[in-house]
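Entry 14: structure prediction run for HTH-type transcriptional regulator. Input pasted below.
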Amino acid sequence: MGRPRSESSREAILEAAFKLLVERGYGGFAIEVVASAARCGKTTVYRWWRSKAELAVDAFFHATREELRLPDTGSAREDFRSQILELGVLLRGERGQALAAMLGGARTDPALAKALGQRWLEPRRRWGFERMSHAAATGELRPGVEPTAALSLLYGPLYAPLLFGGEIPAADAIRAYLDLACVGIFVDSG
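Run finished. Output tokens:
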């Protein structure tokens, strides 16, 4: 059965993996390099993770776990504003660099695309669609607003830079964008 897994080794591997993902991108990310940086053997890494894709996604979530809040204030407009502003803060830092590296790597690595889709994109897409559908049912959306189009409009300023190598807008720019987008999506609550 082998030696028992060490939680301190696991932590060191995740921290080294995240740092390397930020510094080198997904293309320069390798199990051997992570093992060396974490001061362990690559067999130790493979005891926890079957592939570099799994390790990269776990390292990202290990560094991000505290900030993945999906709010429910009772107001769809405020829920989306709050979530998008928090997401902007997260994406402007190292976690945004790591996510951008993985999104780029997902184009050529199906295992990474699947893991990233399941753990990052789908839960957020599901929350957004459910929240937008609830807003439509409660009369918070303007008549004729299509939820999927509204979600693309709201999140586009954050994801487009990740995909195309631009900078995530600063909080003031995101607020200005949200002010404009919300006028077209949500019924005025005032």
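Notes: The chain has two domains: 7-63, 68-185. Will compare against the previous run tomorrow.
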